[in-house]
C-alpha cells in the first residue's frame, strides 16, 4: 500500500495473507498475496496469485507478519478454483479472481472472533467518487511487516479508459480506484486483497486488487476485479465444490 497508515488490530477482520512454502528462507511460509475471508472455509483472492496448488496457507486475524500474534489463525489451503475466463495479456489481466477452499476440521475452518470475520459480497451498488478502503502487506514506499490501509475513491470507467489513463484496457468486470494525482494505491503483494466500501454501516467487498501500471503514479490508479460481476460464479463454486 502506498500512502497508507498502520491498520489497528481487528480493523480488517476479513483480510487474509496468502502464504506459500519457501525454499531458502528461515520461515517455512512467506506472504505472497492478499485474500478476503467470505465464509468460514472460503477465501477470495486474485487468479494471478495462484502459481501452485499445494503448500499454501492462509493467515487470518493478524496485523504483523514478522511475529506470532495471539489473535492469528493459520489454516492450510485444501484446494484452489481459478476463474475459467482468467486471462493474462501483455498489458492487462481479465477475470483475475480465484477461490481458496480452506482445510476443515469438524466442518469448520476459520473461527469467528473479534479479529476474524467474513466480509459481505456486494448487494448494493456504489457510485463514482465513493471513498473506499484498501489494505494489505504489499510494497510500500518505506517497507514494513505491518498491515497498512488507505482510502481511495472509485473512478468513473470513462475516465479510467481514457487515452492518458488505461486507454480502453479495462472491461466491464473491472474498475479503477485511487487518486488521479497519484500517491495512494495498492502495489505488488496487495493483489488478491480487498477494496471495501461501506453502505449503511455494512462493509462490502467491492473490488479485489488486480493490477496497475506501477504503483502510486499520476494517471495510473489501481485496477480491481469488480466483485458484483462475479457473485453468481462465487456462489456457484461455493455450492458445488
Ligand atoms: C502487482 O504487481 C500489482 N498499483 C498490484 C497492484 C498494482 C500494481 C501492481 C496497482 O501485483
From TrEMBL:
It is found in: Secreted, Extracellular space. Residues 1-239 form the Peptidase S1 domain. It comes from the Eukaryota. Transmembrane segments: none annotated. This is trypsin. The lineage of its organism: Eukaryota, Metazoa, Chordata, Craniata, Vertebrata. The gene is HABP2.
Amino acid at each position: 500500500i502506498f500512502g497508507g497508515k498502520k491498520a489497528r488490530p481487528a480493523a480488517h477482520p476479513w483480510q487474509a495473507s496468502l502464504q506459500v512454502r519457501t525454499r531458502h528462507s528461515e520461515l517455512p511460509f512467506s506472504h505472497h498475496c492478499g485474500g478476503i475471508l467470505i465464509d468460514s472455509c472460503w477465501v477470495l483472492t486474485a487468479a494471478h496469485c495462484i502459481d501452485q496448488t499445494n503448500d499454501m496457507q492462509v493467515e487470518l486475524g493478524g496485523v504483523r507478519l514478522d511475529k506470532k500474534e495471539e489473535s492469528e489463525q493459520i489454516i492450510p489451503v485444501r484446494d484452489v478454483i481459478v476463474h475459467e475466463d482468467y486471462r493474462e495479456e501483455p498489458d492487462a489481466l481479465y477475470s483475475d479472481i480465484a477461490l481458496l477452499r480452506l482445510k476443515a476440521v469438524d466442518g469448520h475452518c476459520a473461527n469467528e472472533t473479534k479479529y476474524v470475520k467474513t466480509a459481505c459480497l456486494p448487494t448494493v451498488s456504489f457510485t463514482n467518487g465513493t471513498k473506499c478502503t484498501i489494505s494489505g502487506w504489499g510494497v510500500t514506499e518505506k517497507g514494513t511487516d505491518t498491515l497498512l490501509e488507505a482510502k481511495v475513491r472509485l473512478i468513473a470507467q470513462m475516465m479510467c479508459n481514457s487515452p492518458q489513463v488505461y486507454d480502453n484496457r479495462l472491461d466491464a468486470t473491472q474498475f479503477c480506484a485511487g487518486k488521479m494525482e497519484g500517491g495512494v494505491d495498492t502495489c505488488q503483494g496487495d493483489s488478491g486483497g480487498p477494496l471495501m466500501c461501506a453502505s449503511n454501516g455494512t462493509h462490502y467487498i467491492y473490488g479485489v486488487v488486480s493490477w496497475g501500471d506501477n504503483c502510486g503514479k499520476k494517471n495510473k490508479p489501481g485496477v480491481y476485479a469488480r466483485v458484483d460481476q462475479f457473485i453468481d460464479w462465487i456462489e456457484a463454486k461455493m455450492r458445488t465444490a
